[in-house]
Amino acid sequence: MEKYVLGIDVGGTGTKFGLVNKDGKVLRSNSIPTRQYPEINEFCDELCERMRRLVKDEGIEMGNVAGIGCGAPDANFYSGCIEYATNLPWKGVVPFAKLISERMGIKCTITNDANAAAQGEMIYGSARGMKNFIVITLGTGVGSGIVIDGKLLYGHDGFAGELGHCKIDHSGNGRLCGCGQKGCIEAYASATGVARTAKEIVTSTTQPTLLRNVADIDHITSKDVFDAAEKGDLVAKEIFDYTGHLLGQKLADYVHFSSPEAIILFGGLTKAGHWIMDPIREAMEANLMPIWKGKIPVSVSNLKDSDAAILGAASLIS
Fold first, then answer.
1. Which of 296, 299, 293, 8 minimizes the C-alpha distance to 135?
2. What pLDDT is attached to residue 179?
3. Among 151, 176, 139, 159, which residue's Cα sits nearest to residue 308?
4. Each residue's pLDDT tens digit, 266-287
5. How far apart are CA 300 and CA 120, in angstroms?
6. Using CA atoms, how far apart are residues 76 and 299, in angstroms rounded to an integer?
7. What is the DSSP string of the chain?
8. Which residues in the chain land under pLDDT 70?
9. Strands 151-152 and 26-33
10. Which residues fall within 8 angstroms of residue 198, CB to CB, at 6 or more apart?
């Protein structure tokens, strides 16, 4: 009898969940607004009720669900807890896997969302057949999942691989990051970082740019920058060039310590296409030792956006 897996992607804004079959197809999916449930038990009650309904609507017995995989910010694979997440409404240490398992009667495995993305790429996506690669998620922040010899790198405490918090500015005067430190690559190369760069240029220079037409400059987005670049705006192009070169420099560092077969990028910022990818590749190549030049492809995930996070989480069980 075929077994199925439930995958959960906990995000700061919304939580997606879906039922996945053995071939990696998301049969059904749904979502709930994360911040609508500031109390963790209420959130888990609603999430589990919705997942049970999802399974029932597919005509499947709960006994045929092999397990539940979950990706979440600041989740610890070893402890099963979400620990001091800055972008979630629940503070402190939350025993998330235990709370879900108790309600569903099925084992739940949880890991950092970027680790889940890397696992999903290895089983269902661009990294199939690879044993050494890095996934970089470019969204609100910069996350990373590192696979070495076919295994996710967790370190001694479950938190290895925070590449987004490697510094690009060591002056002490870099941008403040959400982690509390200054100069992290996340503060520059995330979608949020692109928006910050755009705001800095618009408010501190007189350069002509379509970005000045954004009604509320405090809420400018990376999508606004992309739209301007597509219309030939030189400032928008400069923003992506600046961002891509910073990230490319750090990718070269990541190659030097892990010698991956490939680096796979995932997340909303990759929608900027060649505007961001060209400077990333150029800067990485320029900063690589000769032994790696021309050998490490940098590509965008080929997983379907709407399914990728759910598949990544589900792959923890597969």
1. 299
2. 87
3. 139
4. 988 999 999 999 999 999 999 9
5. 14
6. 27
7. ---EEEEEEE-SSEEEEEEE-TTS-EEEEEEEEGGG--SHHHHHHHHHHHHHHHHHHTT--GGGEEEEEEEETTEETTTTEEES-SSSS--SEE-HHHHHHHHHTS-EEEEEHHHHHHHHHHHHSTTTT-SSEEEEEESSSEEEEEEETTEE--TTTS----GGGSBS--SS-SPBPTTS-BSBTHHHHSHHHHHHHHHHHHHH-----GGGG-S-GGG--HHHHHHHHHTT-HHHHHHHHHHHHHHHHHHHHHHHHH--SEEEEESGGGGGTHHHHHHHHHHHHHTS-GGGTTT--EEE--S-HHHHHHHHHHTTT-
8. 1, 318
9. unpaired
10. 211, 220, 224, 225, 236, 239
Residues in the chain: 318
Which tens digit of pLDDT belongs to each residue from 193-215?
999 999 999 999 999 999 999 97
CB atoms within 10 A of CB 202: 17
